[in-house]
UniProtKB/TrEMBL annotation:
Domain of life, per lineage: Bacteria
Signal peptide start and end residues: 1-26
Keyword annotations from UniProtKB, A to Z: Signal
Entry protein name: Uncharacterized protein
Organism: Siminovitchia fordii
Amino acid sequence: MTLSQKITKKWLLPFAFCLSMTFAFFPQSEASATGGIPGHAGYAYPTNIVTEDGRWDGTLYTNSTHRNVEVGYGAVQLYSKSTKRFVRMGDLRDISFRLCNASTKSCTSWKSYPEWTNMKANQKYYLDVRDRYSSYYATAGGEIYVTR
């Protein structure tokens, strides 16, 4: 056995032990485990809303203390479905929201103001957004807030 192999063998076990203890004493937080960014009052999940693309517009997680959900979003932009070109700026009346439970597949009713209280604890939800036009689709950036 060479000198470098002896040194490696001597220090490998203590290094592995110290590394495992680091994760034991500093576990991954719930927010980072679920993708949420911890904030003063809860968790924020960044989202990019695009209606009529067949995809969920966001994912969020509730827990035993954080069960209220609100969506904050920026300017709504409307695009032509046929040309994919920008048509005009939209407003709050142009889109509506609902939450769908990932495990039960049940959804809330559509609402124009995206706020829900007392959602089931320890659940994964999907955000679904629709617009009110047949010839346009809407986009907006935003965040999903899960609070107490």
